Amino acid sequence: MIETSTARATRWFSGVALAGVLVLGAITPAGAAKKPDACKALTKGQIAAAFPGTLSAPVPTANPSVVTCKWTVAGATGSAWVKVLVQFIGGKEALTALTSSGMANPIAGAPGYFTGPGGTVATLKKKWLVSVQGGPDAVVTADGVVIKPADQTTTLLGLAKQAVANL
To answer: Measured by CB atoms within 10 angstroms of the end CB, which terminus of the chain is less buried, N or C?
Structure first.
């Protein structure tokens, strides 16, 4: 069975969220940290430059230590999506856990930035773990062949740098 990039990303984001929940109580009481707005991490123009097409309204989600925002893009050659995750409590500890487990690896030529399953790009902004994930959806041909999209690390690295600057 072929695992889609969306499934890999969901698994990775779930791992990040779980790591945040595990360290939440040890770091600070719930509600003590100000929640960032993940939907302000990227502008419409920044997303459109990376993935041209019609951009959906942002869809935010939140829990006690993590906020996310997801956009979908309907383009002429198919659909794409972008998701930003900001773990604002336990972010440094979560990144340490991800790198020590091998789920996140340094990106050559981009000090402080890491890549994970599904092409996720992550870094720290102060103590926040900021992750950007996305890209074109895989295409299944009429005869059942899955065409995976090209690696999006370079594109997502650019978006991750913009997200860190915007937060």
So the answer is: N
